[in-house]
Amino acid sequence: MAPESPAPALDPLAEPVDRVGRGFIAVLALTNLGIWTAFFTPIQFLLPLQVEAIAPASKESSLGVVVAVGAFVSLVASPLAGAFSDRTSARLGRRRTWVLWPTLAAVAVLALMGGLTTIGGLVLGWALGQLTLNASYAAVTAMLPDQAPVAQRGTVGAVVGAAQPLGVIVGSLIATLVPGDNTAADGQRARYLVVAVVVLMTAVLFVARMRDPRLERDRIPAFHLGTFSRAFWVSPRAHPDFAWVFLTRFLVILGTAFVTSYLLYFTRDVLGRSPDEAGDTVAAILQFYIVALLVSALVAGPVSDRVGRVKPFVIGASLVCAGAILVLSFARTQEAATVAAVIMGAGFGAYTAVDLALISRVLPSAGDRARDLGIINIANALPQVLAPLVASVWITALRPSGYDVAYQSLYVAAAVVTVLGAVLVVKVRGVP
After folding, report:
1. Can you give 19-79 as a three-state secondary structure string?
2. Buried b (16+ CB within 10 A) or exposed e, 154-183
3. 299 vs 97: CA distance, rounded Å
4. Residue 221 pLDDT grade (very low, low, confident, very high; cuts 50, 70, 90)
5. What are the tens digits of pLDDT across the range 133-177?
6. To which H or E segment does residue 229 belong?
7. What Å distances lie between residue 7 and 4, 18, 143, 145, 214, CA to CA?
8. What is the DSSP string of 234-291?
9. What residue ranges do the domains of the chain occupy?
10. In angstroms, rounded to a whole number, what is the distance separating the alpha carbons of residues 353 and 336?
11. Closest CA to 42 of 135, 112, 120, 138
């Protein structure tokens, strides 16, 4: 039997043309799964339980502060870490270096999070968690435009995008299967430790298995603080497609963030579940959401590659998400909320698969992929700052009229924002 031909050499600054294999896709998806598990398990399950145990009377506003401060940190961490990753010449490679060390720091932070017993401690702890996890995520995300050719990005984006909802599944399993005390401020220790193990194992897999060519020092521009700082502003006039993609992603993520930020409390205050039942109810609803999302993502990505078009899928998926939010605004039973979740899953699955391909095709510079993706990630993170703050003020203001009114009006507004994000995708001119 003839020996296998060696893999073609990779140029870290060239536009990739060789198709990536299943091993690359699998490792990239699993690494994303670890990171999203570390993001979603605290946000969806552990932090709400800790906050309620510490400050039950102000749970909405307190959770809003914890999540918003963490998201604000991610606004800075992702593009800054991405920019340094782009300029890294370590032997381990640009991306693997920035996956390894921030992940080790994130593991240490997660191990400490379960023992925090004050709102101030949670604010600081989750801020550090977002800092370290986003530093790693910036490098992981850059691997798609680094190594996957344009014609394959819908397919790769679909598999990678599927890792996001699977992170929610893993988080729900951790929250339900790993022992914990939901009434104690420090009752989530074991669950945080399991999250730390998951993200560590997937990062080690990435470092061990990914090819990541070294960027030679003579190909890195000289560092000047002023030039480096100004580069974080990507001119909408010079790069209009990048600007429109940023804005549309911001609007769609903002609309959906209004739903996800307070889903646990929605099951408590609108669907009438007890504290012990709420987590199981959210997990049951999310199971249907995730199945729909996985099917939708794995279908939409390859179909987009096959037909060679991206924008119609992004627009259609965003409109489906808006419809799902509208359905949820009228849901008063677990069954109705589940229907909304299935519709949302179908829409957001297609969106996560194809929008990543859209983003990768409007990046301004091959030498700054991680930085520019970090800037785009602000469109993911900023809604996580704004949505909890707006939602907490909105719900608190309308709570005297009843939680039904508060959440219904909030979700109708979220649907309108999402529709706007869908419509403005037509402004992207350089991508079919």
Report:
1. CCCHHHHHHHHHHHHHHHHHHHHHHHHHHHHHHHHHCHHHHHHHHHHHHHHHHHHHHHHHH
2. bbbbbbbbbbbbbbbbbbbebbeebebebe
3. 33
4. confident
5. 999 999 999 999 999 999 899 999 888 888 887 887 898 889 889
6. helix 225-230
7. 9, 10, 17, 18, 16
8. --TTT-HHHHHHHHHHHHHHHHHHHHHTTHHHHHHHTS---HHHHHHHHHHHHHHHHH
9. 22-216+227-427
10. 26
11. 112
Q: Determine contact, residues 359/249, Cβ cutoff 8 Å.
A: yes
Q: Which residue matches tokens 């381990």? A: 92
Q: Are 294 and 165 in contact (CB under 8 A)?
A: yes
Q: What is the pLDDT of residue 8?
A: 60
Query: Minimal CA–CA distance to 139: which of 89, 92, 86?
Result: 86
Q: Residue 185 gets which letter from DSSP?
A: T
d(CA 136, CA 376): 15
Instruction: Output the six-digit token pair for 147.
Output: 């190594």
In tens, the pLDDT along 165-178 reads 788 789 888 988 99
Q: Distance of alpha carbon 266 from its chain centroid, rounded?
A: 21
- Confirm or reject CATH 1.20.1250.20 for domain 22-216+227-427, answering yes or no: yes
> What percent of the chain has a predicted confidence (pLDDT) above 90?
63
Biggest alpha carbon–alpha carbon distance for the chain: 76
DSSP 214: P
User: What is the pTM (predicted TM-score) of this model?
Assistant: 0.83
**DSSP state, 426?**
G
Q: How many angstroms separate the CA atoms of 14 and 367, rounded? A: 8
* Structure tokens belonging to residue 72: 């604000």
Contacts of 184 (CB under 8 A, 6+ apart): 53
Given its phi and psi angles, is residue 98 left (phi above 0), alpha (psi -120 to 50 degrees) or beta?
Answer: alpha
b/e 25-38 (16+ beta carbons within 10 angstroms → b): bebbbbbbbbbbbb
Q: Which of 386, 321, 422 is nearest to 71 (CA)?
A: 386
Map residue 213 onto helix, strand or coil.
coil
Query: Do the Cβ atoms of 213 and 89 come closer than 8 Å?
Result: no
Tokens, residue 113: 């999070």
Q: If DSSP states are collapsed to H, E and C, what string results for 367-414?
A: HHHHHHHHHHHHHHHHHHHHHHHHHHHHHHHHHHHCHHHHHHHHHHHH
**Amino acid identity, residue 313?**
F
Residue appearing with tokens 């480096």? 228
